[in-house]
Amino acid sequence: MTDKLIIFDTTLRDGEQSPGASMTKEEKLRIARQLEKLGVDVIEAGFAAASPGDADAIHSIAKVIEHSTVCSLARANERDVRAAGEAIKPARKGRIHTFIATSPIHMEKKLRMTPDEVVERAVAAVKLAREYTDDVEFSAEDAVRSEMDFLVRIFDEVIKAGATTLNVPDTVGYSIPVLWGERFKQLIARVPNSGKVIWSTHCHNDLGMASANSLAAVMNGARQVECTINGLGERAGNASLEEVVMAVKTRRDIFSCDTTIDTTQIVPTSKLVSSITGYPVQPNKAIVGANAFAHESGIHQDGVLKHRETYEIMRAEDVGWGANKMVMGKHSGRAAFRARLQELGIVLEGEEAVNAAFARFKDLADKKHDIFDEDLQALVSDEGVAQVSDHYRLVAMGAHSETGSLPVARVVMSIGGKEQQADAQGGGPVDATFKAIEQIVRSGTELLLYSVNNITSGTDAQGEVTVRLSKGGRIVNGQGADTDIVVASAKAYLNALNKLDAGAERAHPQV
Ligand SMILES: [Mn+2]
What we know:
The protein is of the alpha/beta class. Helix content is 40%, strand content 22%. The chain has 16 helices and 18 strands. Helix 3 links the parallel strand 4 and strand 5. The model has no long low-confidence stretch (mean pLDDT 91). Bound molecules: manganese (II) ion.
């Protein structure tokens, strides 16, 4: 018999905690819709108590998602649990995920609570959460460094209080597969009534073993895996959804469970998350990396041509590679454009937004012959980017580079509606452009990262630029896309400045 393995995606919560990966409500909605299409069982949509904006985003997601369960994180206190309960109210299926730290180091140094107090708080939070929903998950934060006897005790108590899923997180990414599997085996054997709840694993990738640890837990009875698209997440990230799902699917011979994920949606989801968060996927990343199914080496190629299974354990089509054919071009009409957006799960509010997006599409089609799904996603992202705040806006720019002379750039931009202009030299056209912008704004920010990725292939492809800026401890990622990478760079830089201008600081709990 094959058990169901529940896929709990936390891209919108843990993933969002990656430096600068915070997303707007519209971006979160687009990802949530795609996660539902992918067949994710539970979408952790955020942490409602972090800010009114976070609560609003969860609430909006809860309203539109039909099949997946929508979940909010909550620390084990009344304010957090109530905020989560309110945020998930419109959901057809809603879950509250409450947590408290259970390791000696966290209880003593962070919470300054005795173990008895921690149990009391956990039980109270679970009972309160049950007033809002029957679907309550409890996490023992830093379970990896918690004492087994204490874990058994607190899990026993929260089951009695009404928890239906028990999550065992390796918050700091410290475990190794054999130990993590053993931990689940012991917990399930020792906790009374362990058969009445779903056991869940949440692993971080600090030692590169998040997926391996998650799978070891599954082999020892876990039936929910918490993971993210592209392994996004705090520090080195979380277990990546695509690796866990494809490992279980590919090795049906050893796993006695399977997911109900539509694996052909994996690559489109990966690209969407990468484009929205500004976190590119490394080419050699399992499943979703550009090279994951490329068999370039002559010897391998020969084998693959003669018989595919000689080197391929999975089929590229099964995870959604190659699904994105050329969809549109210069002559595509408004109806076709609209229909394709709909198929991609992109909902634009009102005729005006459709018209604006269509105008940008026509602009792009003038510069680029074939328009792919990725281009459409980037175009809509760019549109959303403009909506974050347009305090800083690019009016016009020019950059010139020539061998034997210093590159120069001229930027005309508007700040709060007032136009200003500057010229600057730099090591290259992008450097000169950024210097010209800084001459005008004097932002006092530090540039932490600059990267360009092509959205599709070919030299006429759009370049997608990420600029990560930090100021006063806050970190944001700005993005911009254009067929001209210098223009894309300027857009990305201004987007980051606008985000710094707009956003407020939020609480970020670590589970
Ligand atoms: Mn985490």
